[in-house]
Amino acid sequence: MFFGPPDRQLYGVYHPPARARADNAGVVLCYPIGQEYIRIHRAFRWLANQLAGQGFHVLRFDYSGQGDSAGDFGDARMAAWIEDARMAVGELVSAAGASQVDVVGLRAGTLVAAGVADLPVVRRLVLWEPRESGAAFRDELMAAHVSSELPPEAQVDEWGMLAIQGFAYSPSFLDDLAASGFPAAPARGLEAMLLVSAIPVAGLEAMVAGAVATGVKVDARLVDSPTNWTSIDDMGGLFLPMEPMRAIVEWLDAGR
Amino acid sequence: MPAANVTRIPWREEVVQIGAPVPLHGVLTRPASDSLPFALVILNSGLLHHVGSCGFSVKLARAAAQIGVPALRYDTSGVGDSPARPSGASHDRRSVSELLEVLDAMQRQLGVDRFALMGLCSGAFTAFDASVIDDRVIAMTQVAPFTYRTGEWYARHYVPRVLTYDTWRRYIARKVGAEATRPSGLDEQYLEAYDAGWSVPPQSVVEDGYRSLLARRVHLFNIMTGGESDSYLYEGQFRDMFPSLAFDERFIEWYLPEATHTITRPDHQRLVLSRIVQWLSGIARPR
Q1: Smallest CA–CA separation between B139 and chain A, in Å?
Q2: CB-hemisphere CA count at 13 Å for A63?
Q3: Is the pLDDT of residue A255 over 70?
Q4: Is A108 exposed, middle or buried (0-12, 13-18, 19+ CB in 10 A)?
Q5: pLDDT digits (tens, 9 = 90+) for A152-204
Q6: Which residues, 6 or more positions from A43, have their beta carbon under 8 angstroms from its beta carbon?
């Protein structure tokens, strides 16, 4: 499906619930960026199917300029992506009829997910592999850029775009990312938050403390994930991060 | 968004569902104005979903639409956004039959009966097999298609290596058993490997296929990268692989040795995109 205004069509895939839930809840999935989006696509489909099997309305969607959504990746801006996510939440409510919405974000998608937490209909947040700030993601992208051993003519193009893992990033977007972060205290109305990661995440103490202080139930889970889903094997096989995804399904389902 | 920022998009995109009861899922990009009388169909590459490697399929579909060619990117069953279909057929056979099903659907929906196909790696294999048996295909561009070693390949591959220290070091290490086999260390439950069931067909089969395509005067654009160096090393190798074939001006072979198998560098993506669009334009306006 495409949704959103005609000049900014967003591509999404809606997974209808396989059975009714008492809470008539929906889940919006927020992808990570660039090559990570490509690598996790199959896993997100698995996650969406599992959640739909538990009775959730599920919408996974592409941000403006990424995947099938309108626009060029080089024109991407974080504020626009958060606006996209707000439209996705709205779509799940207006078109699918969800009464409340949980939002799951992976890696830089956690920043997008956090950006919609103030919507009254948003009930819970899942931050999967978050970092302490957007600057950490920007630094990781820049490290990949520097270590890619591209010849100089391929590192930065004539428009100033930086080649990172197969995608041309604008300096504006990288600046956006660096300036992004989690609010010190989540919006009122948020009930619970899950932090799930394969590695300990430092630097989120203030955000967690702020959430707890405002009555948000925070659950942090360190799960074993023996493979690196951001890589592929020699034959083009994709790694599916099963443990974190199972933990997310279990947590969302248990909180009904 | 303020009206001043509204940009006019020179294409329209829609989701299409093909077949029942388990439909294939795709995105059709239509030109905003009149369409040319053929359509482009873009195939999956391995497990990558229909946006393609680094989103290349999306860029290609939109660029094609800008020159008047409607373009469909779709997922074969079990890949990307298309659910798996119950089938006893191997993935390669199923992907060919599904491509023919897609051509049927596009013929009904767009009213065209001529198609150009684009495939990378496994997508190229599927495109080739379908093109040989379906004469609605008038053009095909393959990135990393079936290739076979030639005498010149062996010369180019081995002669430089004979002269290097590393080759001799590895040879001696193997002989004395100093290099142990590396375990993969992977737990298969976490890995969804691409098992297409593809095996490289005998050279004579592919030769016959090209003979048929050339006889039908199909436009062929074969793009090779440095990622295929285990079987391809120089521009002109196709003519050496198949010396009995009369390749004419409709056959274009282009070697981009600096490029990776999935064309990951953005500058290479732009170059390949530009060449494919130029090639499509030539089909649209034959000399």
Answers
A1: 25
A2: 27
A3: yes
A4: buried
A5: 788 898 889 999 999 999 999 999 999 999 887 767 789 999 999 988 888 88
A6: A229, A238, A240, A241, A245
Q: Which of B194, B265, B269, B272 to mutate to test the interface with A (most CBs of A within 10 A)?
A: B265
Angle at B269 between CA B267 and CA B272, to 5 degrees: 110
Percent of all residues in chain B with a pLDDT value above 90, rounded to a whole number? 72
Position of tokens 């002109």? B236
Pairing, β A162-164 against β A167-169:
antiparallel
DSSP state letter for B45: B
The pair phi, psi for residue B116, each rounded to 5°, is -110, 140
Three-state secondary-structure class, residue B47: coil
Cross-chain Cβ contact B47/A237 below 8 Å: yes
Identify whether the C-beta of residue B150 lies closer than 8 Å to the C-beta of residue B285: no
CB contact under 8 A, A239 and B192: yes
Minimum distance, in Å, between the CA of residue B29 and any CA atom of chain A: 10
Structure confidence at residue B274 as a pLDDT band (50, 70, 90): very high
Which chain A residue's Cα is nearest to B48?
A38
CA angle, B58 as apex, A116 and A105 as ends, to 5°? 25
Cβ neighbors of B78 (< 8 A, separation 6 or more) are B84, B85, B91
What is the CA angle B245-B250-B251, rounded to 5? 55
Surface of B (73-92) touching A: CB under 8 A: 80-81
CB B240 within 8 A of CB B150: yes
Those residues of chain A whose CB sits closer than 8 Å to some CB in chain B are 1-2, 5, 7-9, 11, 13, 35, 38, 41-42, 45, 66-68, 70, 73, 150, 153-154, 157, 161, 163, 165-168, 226-227, 233, 235-242
Please tell me the pTM assigned to this model. 0.92
> For chain A, how far is it from start to end, CA to CA, in angstroms?
27
Residue A5, SS3 per DSSP: coil
Does residue B236 sit at the A interface (CB-CB below 8 Å)? Answer: no
Where in chain A does DSSP place strands (E)? 2-3, 10-15, 25-30, 57-61, 100-106, 122-128, 162-164, 167-169, 192-197, 217-222, 238-239
Nearest Cα of chain B lies from the Cα of A212 at a distance, in angstroms, of: 34
| Residue from B184, B192, B199 whose CB has the most chain A CBs within 10 Å, to mutate | B192
CA of A158: which chain B residue's CA is closest?
A: B267
Q: Is the CB of B191 inside 8 Å of chain A's CB atoms?
A: yes
Cα dihedral A38→A40→A46→A50 (10° resolution): -130
Convert A27-63 to b/e letters by CB count within 10 Å (16 or more is b): bbbbbbbbbbbbbbbbbbbbbbebbbebbbbbbbbbb
Instruction: Classify residue A134 as exposed, middle or buried by CB count within 10 Å of its CB (0-12, 13-18, 19+).
Output: buried
CB proximity B48 to A under 8 Å: yes
